[in-house]
Each structure stands twice: as structure tokens, then as C-alpha cells.
TrEMBL record:
Keywords for the protein's UniProt record, in alphabetical order: Calcium, Cell adhesion, Cell membrane, Cleavage on pair of basic residues, Cytoplasm, Glycoprotein, GPI-anchor, Lipoprotein, Membrane, Metal-binding, Repeat, Signal
Protein name: Cadherin-13
Main localisation: membrane
UniProt xrefs under Pfam families: Cadherin, Cadherin_pro
InterPro entries: Cadherin, Cadherin-like_dom, Cadherin-like_sf, Cadherin_CS, Cadherin_pro_dom
Organism: Strigops habroptila
Subcellular location: Cell membrane; Cytoplasm
Membrane topology listed for this record: Lipid-anchor; GPI-anchor
Length: 711
């Protein structure tokens, strides 16, 4: 089938070239620059594939061929031959030919079955039946193939444009990116011969192809034919090494994993043409560190880059390894791993992760601890061994008290630094209740054990705790103590007899009492029997009383060695008695001598006592002397009254005697004087200086009259 295809294609191309190039001179280079072959099921070793024809028009002296795919070669006569059996050769390969006088490039495309006919029709633009006559083209611009990284000197001829209009007065003109557009000046055309040349080294990775236009003009530059598209394809050379871009590469695999477990994938990229072997990568492990327990712990898929384990699960044991970290030097080589391929390397780090295949074990079966009664805090550190990876859930210990903690007096926490169990007393222990405690404790890991591993007897331990007796202070019952007393009870009255007991029941101790804090100095306590009596009058209105309550502190001291002290609090709630007279406010008032409003001032009264020993208050004026009354008192409510003048008074100072009586039983009265200043007022300004000069005191007048009467 392949030979038939080759012969048909060669025949068709030769006919087209003969028609297009009739009556033209020999053109150096490949006589056919593009080939299409159907991809067979398999290329057989040493089997001819097709034949290429190269003619430098001068005898082909020292003609050599180079093929881009190392799996093929070209014989001296131009026959393309497969070098080995293979089922896939890639999608494209290029053949470079060079003699003493010419060089050229041909492209061979490998297509799926029946794909070539459509491609050939597209390239040659002919009908499927190849009937005649056909439209004859004036310009023949075959695609130009230019290898990247060519050596100089430049310019270098890379192709030729042919026109049936060629002759005197006809010129070729080339345009497009790479000619008269940026990047300018890469390609040039001989306007007489149509030879295409390149002026510099090309880089396929920068620009893979150029789309130019060629046209034919007369000597005046007027277009005669065209423009016709001219494609320039930059042929890839293997000038890029594989590069690992996604590092660092770190993979994890669980210890005990079965053979063939995938650890990670590591891949590289190659800047060359992905459709050629120049970018066909193969991977290999070049070095493994460390080399124990096997120098070949891992394998890498040469095509995909998947790293998998190749040792048995028994050897993949983290606890028996020299180190749980392996470093692999990975090499990527292009040209499908061929010896002449370019290489790139990277380091892959593989960590063997721990699984919980070792149960924690106590270092001792029994731990001892001693603690004084009444003390809290850590009393003993429990130590364990665990062969798993520190700082993981397979190593971290979790402790539980499974017996003996009936009063919930103990707690245990894990020290994250060393995995020890810190046993603490959280409720003070009482020697008199129990002098010994025995706890049973188990230890587990945060992570569950693997199914074939179980916790054994070494994962439990006992703790023997001895409680030491200390001299504890006496305890008041109750505490605080509360009593209610009237504030005016006689001095020496009994307030309360306190009761304190010594918790050290195994010791026969006596207790003495004393005052610790008595802010007002009102109390005393019998040091033997604890009876509290008053030494002064209790006053509810004292600054030392808060919210009707007086607070004092007392001590109970035993005769132990050393003595221990207990503190008791006494709250005395004081009942109110009517022992405070009401007070009057304000005691000074001013009024203008020509005032029209004779309501002088509103008086108020307060009382330190509590109801019912306060308001309602009774306000009264003392008896006024003289023929006429000058003021009167009007009650406003239970706590206030108003002083009203009966007439305008002369400028002077007046003392008005007023009595205020509370509602207590018996009631208490406060006699006081309101000082009234009658002042001169002009333009809303009050001048009371004259009143001071003309001071008249009704009280003094009364006293003078009383003195005269007594003579």
C-alpha cells in the first residue's frame, strides 16, 4: 500500500512540476520538497519508505543527507530507510541535503490513512481527478524550509521563486514581517533570479514561521502578477535542554506501602518543537541517596515521570531505615532518550511517612509521688517510649486515668515537648480523709493503631500517691457570720459567739481568738470562748457602715508547730433608731427691700435616720415680738416649707428662728435660725452692704429686753 501511495504522489507531483516549470532551466535542490505518506501499522527495519530526488545541477558531487529523526536514514541515492521496527515515527521529519554547490530541505509528513489526499489537494490546488486543461499559475512559490541555528556566512540561499513571466524587465518583490516589516531585513529576494536568502541566524522558539508575499513587477515597479503567499518554516534543531520548572519536588509515601505505590509525578519541559523528537523526553533515576536498604527503592516511568516504589512493604519500614528521607537525582533526556539527546536534571525528595505501628509503653510499671495536703499542681511526670515519628499523631501520647480518681482530684495532661504525662492535683487533698491514693493510668496515641497492632500491658501503669499531713488553720462555721443588732444597744452587749474548729482531727490542739480588723473599734472578743461584745455605741450613720452593715474580721489560731490561722468574717446589720435631729437648708436668704414677690425662700429638711424616723417634717416659727408680724411660714410638702414676708422690710439683717421636728418616736426637734438679708437693689444689682451696717437682730433685741426685765 505504501509503495502504491509513494508512486502515485511522486507521479502527481512530477506532472505538476513539469506543467509549472516547463521550459525552465534546472533549479538546484530537491525536485520535490513535500511528501505525504500514510502511517503504516509498523515501519519495518531496513525497509525503503520513499525516494527523494536532489539535483544541484552540477553533478551532485559530495552529496550528503541528514534526517531530523534518528530512526531513519537516507541512502546515497536518496532512498529513505527505517533503521528499526517501530509503530510510530512522529508526525513530521525533515531531510537536509548538501553538496559542493547547493543545499536544500525537504519535509515528510506522516498522516493517518486517507488523510494525505485532502492535504495534497490543498497543497497543490488540483482537482481530485487531475484532469486537463488546468489553470496555469504564473508564480510558483513553494514553501521554504530553513533550519534554525545555521552557521554563517550570511546571507545564505534558502529557496527560489519561479515565474513563467521571468525575462527582461520583470522583477521579483518580497514583502511581509521579516522583510519590510519588523523584524525587518531577515529575508531578501534577488529581484532578477527570485533566489530567497536569509541574512541571520533564526530561532524557531522565537518565531516558528513567517508568512511572506511575493509578486512580479515591471521595471517601473508596477505589479504584473501576484502577490502570492510564500511560507517560510523554521526547522527545529535540538537546541533546548529539558528544564524542570515546578520544583522543589517533594513527595510522601506511607511506610509499609505495597510495591508499585505511586509517590509523585515529576515532569520537565523542552522548548523545542513538540511534534519532533527534539522535545520527546524520557526520564531516568540517576542517583538515590541513601542507597540503603536497597539502591533501587524507586522507579520512574520513562514516559510519564511517575515515581513508584519497587521494594517490598517490609523494606519500606521507617523505624529500620537509616533516614526517612530519600533524594533522587532525576534526569530528563530529549530525542526520546537517545544517547545524543540533551539532558536536564532535578532533585526529588521523598519522605517516608510514619504510620502508627508501635504502641506507646510506660518506662515503669509503677510511679511514686508525694504531695502535701492542701497543695495543688503537678506531682509526677510519667514517661513513655514510642518508636513512631516524633511530633506526629502516631507518637503523641494521650493519657487517661481509668481507676482511683473517685473525687476527681487528679488530672493528667501531655507535655508536648517530651510526650510525658503530667499528673496534677486539681482539688486539694485531705490527709485526715485519706493518706494514700492509687491511680491506674493508660496511654494511647492521638492516631489509632494500624489493625494488626494492639495496646498491651505496657500501655498501663499505676501511680502510688502519699499525702503528707500539714498543720491546717482552724475553720469558722459558718463563714461569713451574720447578725442583726440595733445601733443604740448598750456598751458591753453580746453580739455573737463564734465557732471555729481545727481540721487536724488527729492532733489535739486548742484554739484562741483575736480581732483582725475592727474599723471603728466597736468590738472585742473573748480569746477563749469566742464571745464578741461591744466596747462602744454602734452607729448606723458611721462612715464605717456600708449599706447598713458593719464588717469585722476575726482570727482563730491553733497551737500547732508552727501555729496555723483561720480567718472569719462577721457582718452586723444595724437597725435604725431615731438618734439624729433633722437639719435645715439653706440657712441664708437675700431679698430686695422693694421686692414685689415676698416669697423669700423655700426651706428643706433632711435626716440621717431611716423611715419612719425622718419625714414628714414639721416646720414652725418661734413667737415674733412687736406689734406687727413681719413673716410667716407655709408648708409645701413633707420635706419643704416656704418663708413669706408680710411686708417690705428695711435694709438690715434679720435672724428668723425656725424649728424642724421629725416623725420619730419619740420625735426629735432642731431649732435653728435663717439669716435673712434685706438689700438695696438697683438695675437688677443687689447691694447688701447697707444691710450689714444696719444690722438688726431680733434675737439681740429679745435678749436685751430679757436682761432689762431681770434687773
Amino acid at each position: 500500500m505504501q509503495h502504491k501511495t509513494e508512486l502515485a504522489l511522486s507521479f502527481l507531483l512530477s506532472q505538476v512540476l513539469l506543467l509549472a516549470c516547463a521550459d525552465l532551466e534546472c533549479v538546484p535542490g530537491f525536485q520535490q520538497k513535500a511528501f505525504y505518506i500514510e502511517e503504516p501499522f509498523q515501519f519495518a527495519e531496513d525497509q525503503p519508505v520513499l525516494k527523494l530526488k536532489f539535483d544541484d545541477c552540477k553533478g551532485n558531487n559530495k552529496l550528503t543527507f541528514e534526517v531530523s529523526n534518528p530512526n531513519f536514514k537516507v541512502e546515497r541515492d536518496g532512498t529513505l530507510v527505517a533503521l528499526k521496527n517501530m509503530s510510530e515515527a512522529g508526525r513530521a521529519l525533515f531531510v537536509h541535503a548538501q553538496s559542493e554547490h547547493a543545499e536544500d530541505m525537504a519535509e515528510i509528513l506522516i498522516v493517518e490513512e486517507n488523510e494525505n489526499r485532502g492535504a495534497l489537494k490543498e497543497i497543490l490546488k488540483i482537482e481530485s481527478n487531475l484532469g486537463f486543461p488546468r489553470q496555469k499559475r504564473a508564480i510558483l512559490a513553494s514553501p521554504v524550509l530553513v533550519p534554525e541555528n545555521q552557521r554563517g556566512p550570511f546571507p545564505k540561499s534558502v529557496g527560489k521563486v519561479i515565474s513563467s513571466l521571468a525575462g527582461d524587465g520583470v522583477r521579483f518583490r518580497l514583502s511581509g514581517k521579516g522583510v519590510d516589516q519588523d523584524p525587518k531585513g531577515i529575508f531578501k529576494i534577488n529581484e532578477i533570479t527570485g533566489d530567497i536568502s536569509v541574512t541571520r541566524v533564526l530561532d524557531r522558539e522565537a518565531t516558528a514561521s513567517y508568512e511572506l508575499e511575493v509578486e512580479v513587477t515591471d521595471v517601473n515597479g508596477k505589479n504584473v502578477d501576484g502577490p502570492v503567499r510564500l511560507d517560510v518554516f523554521v526547522i527545529d534543531q535540538n537546541d533546548n535542554r529539558p528544564v524542570f520548572k515546578e520544583g522543589p519536588y517533594v513527595g510522601h509515601v506511607m511506610e509499609g506501602s505495597p510495591t508499585g505505590t505511586t509517590v509523585m509525578r515529576i515532569t520537565a519541559v523542552d522548548g523545542d518543537d513538540a511534534n519532533t523528537d527534539n522535545a520527546l523526553l524520557r526520564y531516568d533515576i540517576r542517583k538515590q541517596t541513601p542507597a540503603e536498604p536497597s539502591p533501587n527503592m524507586f522507579f520512574i516511568d520513562p514516559e510519564k515521570g511517575d515515581i513508584v516504589t519497587v521494594v517490598s512493604s517490609v523494606l519500606l519500614d521507617r523505624e529500620t531505615m537509616e533516614t526517612p528521607k530519600y533524594e533522587l537525582v532525576i534526569e530528563a533526556k530529549d530525542l526520546g532518550g537517545h544517547d545524543v539527546g540533551l539532558t536536564g536534571t532535578a532533585t526529588a525528595t521523598i519522605l517516608i511517612d510514619d504510620k502508627n505501628d508501635h504502641a506507646p509503653e510506660f518506662t515503669k510499671k509503677e510511679f511514686l509521688a508525694t504531695v502535701k495536703e492542701g497543695v495543688t499542681g503537678v506531682i509526677v511526670n510519667l514517661t513513655v517510649r514510642d518508636r513512631d515519628d516524633p511530633a506526629t499523631g502516631a507518637w503523641r501520647a494521650v493519657y487517661t486515668i481509668i481507676n482511683g480518681n473517685t473525687g476527681q482530684s487528679f488530672e493528667i495532661h501531655t507535655n508536648p515537648q517530651n510526650n510525658e504525662g503530667m499528673l496534677s492535683v486539681v482539688k486539694p487533698l485531705d490527709y485526715e480523709i485519706s493518706a494514700f491514693h492509687r491511680l491506674m493510668i493508660k496511654v494511647e496515641n492521638e492516631d489509632p493503631l494500624i489493625p494488626d497492632i494492639a495496646y498491651g500491658p505496657s500501655s498501663t501503669a499505676t501511680v502510688q500517691i502519699t499525702v503528707e499531713d500539714v498543720n491546717e488553720g482552724p475553720v469558722f462555721h459558718p463563714n461569713p457570720m451574720r447578725v442583726t443588732k440595733q445601733e443604740n444597744i448598750p456598751i458591753g452587749s453580746k453580739v455573737l459567739t463564734v465557732n471555729a474548729t481545727d481540721p487536724d482531727t488527729l492532733q489535739h490542739q486548742t484554739i484562741r481568738y483575736s480581732i483582725y480588723k475592727d474599723p471603728a473599734g466597736w468590738l472585742e472578743i473573748n480569746p477563749t470562748n469566742g464571745t464578741i461584745t461591744t466596747t462602744a455605741t454602734l452607729d448606723r450613720e458611721s462612715l464605717h457602715v456600708q449599706n447598713n452593715t458593719y464588717t469585722a474580721l476575726f482570727l482563730a489560731i491553733d497551737n500547732g508547730h508552727p501555729p496555723a490561722t483561720g480567718t472569719g468574717t462577721l457582718h452586723i446589720t444595724l437597725g435604725d433608731v431615731n438618734d439624729n435631729v433633722p437639719s435645715l437648708y439653706p440657712t441664708l436668704a437675700k431679698v430686695c427691700d422693694d421686692a414685689k414677690d415676698l416669697r423669700v425662700v423655700i426651706l428643706g429638711a433632711t435626716d440621717k435616720d431611716l423611715p419612719p424616723n425622718t419625714d414628714p417634717f414639721k416646720f414652725e416659727l418661734s413667737k415674733q415680738s412687736g406689734p406687727e408680724k413681719m413673716w410667716r411660714l407655709a408648708k409645701l410638702n413633707d420635706t419643704h416649707a416656704q418663708v413669706i414676708l408680710l411686708q417690705n422690710l428695711k435694709k438690715a439683717n434679720y435672724n428668723i428662728p425656725i424649728s424642724v421636728t421629725d416623725s420619730g418616736n419619740p420625735p426629735l426637734t432642731n431649732n435653728t435660725e435663717l439669716k435673712l438679708q434685706v438689700c438695696a437693689c438697683k438695675k437688677s444689682k443687689m447691694d447688701c452692704s447697707a444691710a450689714d451696717a444696719l444690722h438688726i437682730s431680733m434675737t439681740l433685741i429679745l435678749l436685751s429686753l430679757f436682761s432689762l426685765l431681770c434687773l
